[in-house]
Amino acid sequence: MTEQSPPQPTAVPPHTAGGQPIPPPRRGADWMFGGVYGTVLASGLLAALDQKGGEYTPFYDAAWVLVTAATAALAHGYSHHMTTHQSGSAGHRWRVLSRALWNEWPMIVATLPTVLLLLFAGLAHWESYGVTAVGLGLNTALLFAWGAFIAIRVGYRLGSALLIGLADATIGLAIIVANALIK
Q1: What is the pTM of this model?
Q2: How far is CA 144 from each of CA 40, 50, 147, rounded to the nearest angstrom?
Q3: Distance between CA 116 and CA 119 in Å, rounded?
Q4: DSSP-assigned beta bridge partners for residue 20
Q5: Where are the alpha helices (DSSP H) in 84-157?
Q6: Rounded to a whole number, what is the distance in angstroms from the first to the last CA of the chain?
Q7: How many whole angstroms separate alpha carbon 1 and alpha carbon 183?
Q8: Which of 4, 10, 48, 100 has the greatest count of CB atoms below 10 A from its CB?
Q9: DSSP per-residue letters across 14-55
Q10: Residue 161, CB half-sphere, CA atoms under 13 Å: how many?
Q11: Predicted pLDDT of residue 79
Q12: CB-based burial of residue 52 (10 Å sphere; 0-12 exposed, 13-18 middle, 19+ buried)?
């Protein structure tokens, strides 16, 4: 008769945590994250730049939305770079930093609907209140679309994806409510 050894526990592979796969490290431009983040940023800036009783400057506001988005993207890329220190030569670290900064382009691109709206408003001489209302509504719709699209892209069913889109749109609605209450 042969003796059987007790079953050995199977080790969890290093690429999993508790049986769930760990996502790979961030590589390349994260256009889904940048789209949501940039749209929220543009909404907050649009609401903040519209001052009741102040001089309406849509071209100036458009420039500030772009400058702030670029600054936020640079800060975000730099913080990612700093938290994932890699050994190597100074040249290699500079290339990695450059790539981390470049990968933040989706955040800047996501602010372009607001920037274009402000530019068009300046050319068409739209009133400040209407531009802010249209811009916040547009960005809320974009947040819904980003949320639903991303959810479908990562494998959610349509009903769940629409609920996720609604959750993202809630951020835009919160900015609209805050704008109304503060002003």
Answers
A1: 0.77
A2: 11, 23, 5
A3: 5
A4: 17
A5: 90-102, 105-110, 112-124, 128-153
A6: 86
A7: 86
A8: 100
A9: TTEETTEEPPPPP-S--HHHHHHHHHHHHHHHHHHH--TTSP
A10: 13
A11: 86
A12: exposed
**Residues 6+ away with beta carbon under 8 Å from 60:** none
CB contact at 8 A, 34 and 150: no
Q: How many residues does the chain have?
A: 183
Contacts of 51 (CB under 8 A, 6+ apart): none
User: What tokens appear for 114 in the block?
Assistant: 């607001």
List the chain pLDDT tens, one digit each, 183 residues.
Answer: 455 555 554 554 544 445 555 444 455 557 778 888 999 999 999 999 877 777 889 999 999 999 999 999 999 888 888 887 667 777 877 888 888 888 889 999 999 999 999 999 999 999 998 999 999 999 999 999 999 998 998 899 999 999 999 999 999 999 999 988 987
Contact indicator for 165, 151 with CB cutoff of 8 Å: yes
CA distances for 170 relative to 28, 111, 147, 162, 176, angstroms: 28, 18, 11, 12, 10
Looking at residue 14, its pLDDT comes to 47
Cα–Cα dist 29/22, whole Å: 19
